[in-house]
Amino acid sequence: MPIASALDTNFSRAAQRVLDHLSVATGLSSWAVCRVDHEGSQTLAVVDPHGVLQAHETVYAPLGGRATARVTAAITFPDGQPFGELVGFDGDSCLPALEDATAHARVFGTVLGALAAAEVTMCSERRAIELRDGLSDPLTGLATRQGWEQRLRRDERFCREFGEPAALLVIELDDLKRNNELHGHSAGDEQLRVAGTVLREVLAGRHFGARITGDRLGALMIGVNEHEIGEFERVVRQALSTSEISVSIGVARRRPETGLEGAIAAAEAAIAAVHAARASTVADASHVTLLLEALESGTIKAYFQPIVDLRTGEVVALEALARWQSHEGVREPDQFLPMLQQAGLLGALFDRILEDGLERLVEFRAVVPDLQLAVNFEFDTKPVNSLLDTVKDRLQRFGLPPEALSIEFSERQTFDLSADVRAELFALADMGVHLMLDDFGTGFASLETLTGLPVTGVKLDRRFTGQVVNGERESIVVKAMIALAAETGLTVIAEGIETQLQCDRLVRMGCRLGQGYLFALPQPADAMATVLSAPLVSTF
Fold first, then answer.
1. In this structure, are residues 509 and 478 in contact, taking their beta carbons and an 8 Å threshold?
2. Which of 144, 386, 411, 498 has its CB 3.0 to 4.6 Å from that of 444, i.e. a possible disulfide?
3. Which of 29-43, 210-224, 240-254 is least confident?
């Protein structure tokens, strides 16, 4: 039987049968198999006719501590190492002597300990093989994101089955994006190589490490206590600091109620809190002045990321993305958009990027005649004039047809649109401007949104793009989303494509267009001639 199937059946089914037998044979109505740590008891299997006790939850008081009748038996591995505890209890004060119940519990505690030892050993051997032979990121030598997600799913089953403690670290390289922008990708690649080497040395084959995004590494630890988690974090920080790599680290323990998925969310929230603490986004007068100067001087300008025909590799469109070329280096949008929003300057930003992008599009069309431009717009702000007037003016100024422009807005912005905004959207669509719904699938849009607004396409959110290689269920969901959009006559663009396998799967699912780091990072206009001159990838 495959390991995954064994984890889902053998131990849990055996434990459940043991508890059912004990409940009948001993007269004690409630039984549980549990692991005990400093926080309490984590239940692995339960029989409780009252429905109060559930499997896979943490109980902070002793199980059955207030019952009138209670027995316990240790569950130990054959080598004598403790695994957990078998607990039976009942509130009936008229039960016979508990010697027989205790004897039964001891026998089955030994049986469960032997079974647990066999399966834990198999899982440990499987994890050791994966550490050695797993999918490898060429820069860091760690596992890829695909390997990380596979490992998370497998270890979640393991932890849930056996109550094993676990923790993870998410490590963000603070300066990677800036190094790429200032010194080229070779400098960023070198930083990733060094960080990967450092983390592999700290992991020392005991724990699992992966490159989980472009600038984030992850470490997954199974069977660790609070002290070991803290010591591991300290060593990682010290080793990376010694290598002159600045990082933000989020650490989280797995909890039975939320699993490893909840631990990832907690670790990412910790990193977000670090970012919030580092930089204030209060837009005071000096900030506003600085931002206005950047918009007027053109130091906030458009960078371009290609949108590619996934079947041929041909670039069919470019998305214009805001970047700030400050004296400190090229700043990403998350470093200045909050200030622009507080200062009421998002409309001015749209004007800046639209004008810069269309001016450059005229040049790019000399290389790719039918090339289109996509620009993001926020409805909670207004450009200098109305959206319709602004678009008309810029298209006329640069002599471009409306079909050359695509305006993107996110699902969350489609709530409570005013009548004026809706009228402008329909007028733009009537002109021939394409309207795209961004971050499709994140939970805000509905069929009413797709049919009630004149959208011509959707952009599949990157979290779904990453799921196409995860498993059959995830692939079915993504394929259904692509089919839904296609059935309503909408163009589908997949965001965040990072691997050739993702690209190939998306093509087979019926997705024709996509963008992501597999093809190119956002780049300044001067670098686009090379990008546009030849296909970026060919899948078939």
1. yes
2. 411
3. 29-43
